[in-house]
Design brief:
Elements lengths: L2 E4 L2 E4 L3 E2 L5 H14 L3 E3 L7 H13 L9 E6 L6 H15 L6 E4 L36 H13 L6 E4 L3 H10 L6 E5 L7 H9 L3 E5 L23 H10 L3 H11 L3 E2 L6 H8 L8 H8 L10 H9 L8
Helix pairs in contact: 1-2, 1-9, 2-3, 3-4, 7-8
Amino acid sequence: MQTIAVGTSSMPAVGLGLWKIDPSNVAQTVYEAIKTGYRHLDSAADYGNEAEVGAGIKRAIDDGLCTREELWVTSKLWNTFHRREHVAAACRKSLEDLGLDYFDLYLVHFPIALKYVDFADRYPPEWLFDPSAEAPTMQRDPVPLSETWAGMEELVDQGLARQIGVCNYNSGLLHDLMSYARIKPAMLQIESHPYLTQEALIRTAQEYGLAVTAFSPLGASSYLELDMASQAETVLTENVVTEIAQRHGVSPAQVVLRWGIQRGTAVIPKTVKVERLTENLTLAGFELSYDEVVAISALNKNRRFNDPGVFCADAFNTFHAIYD
């Protein structure tokens, strides 16, 4: 299995993304994924399914499919827990739900600080501060990202996370973070696919020594059910992708995932179908040529599907842009 270096560790280059997998299905999906050969699981408190993910992990370990040490488990700090005093508690809550003692990687989910919501009041707290309000909105909390990062560093000190990193940061935030971090981030996780190649950001991260994980590596497919993308926006039907797939005797999805790996990023596609789990993991039997990689990269439209500047206004009555 191909790996990428993450700090002092090695992470499988293909993982299973757990966003939007229904809690009623996710334990079985995790079990089947591990049975298929996955050893990299990408979770988050905000996904609302970590307890069930933990049940799938436990069953797989109990059945002898793997050991804890053979798994790479990532989770993420939610926006409402950005104050330094809340970071460790949020991490411990995710660990408790997953039935784990440590994370291989723990990430700041968004560079967005929202007002604290106690676990006893609502968990996961999601985006709205008070969903029962007459006109519910997000409530920002003026927490510097440097304070949040200090809390993240304490997770490493306490053995709760072996590596730490960030999601959804732009290049300016990365430069700033690297200027003050006592423990440097090991990972940048961002949306990236052939319609959003993010070449300058990926190069910036890699020159700082950060690994990069691409979420939504197949593009629009993750967003159709949320009405955040249309069928016409699927990269999998682009002629260049289908022609390359035919040439190599693989699926368009395998071509796009292979493109991501050959760019030096990890990829975390989401699926609940056993046949897709196998397909998404089977990427080692072929290699794209330089010209094929360039041709796929030329599909870039700077089309971002996961944009708080759009969905926060549409869904949460609060405009909050983090990308220019």
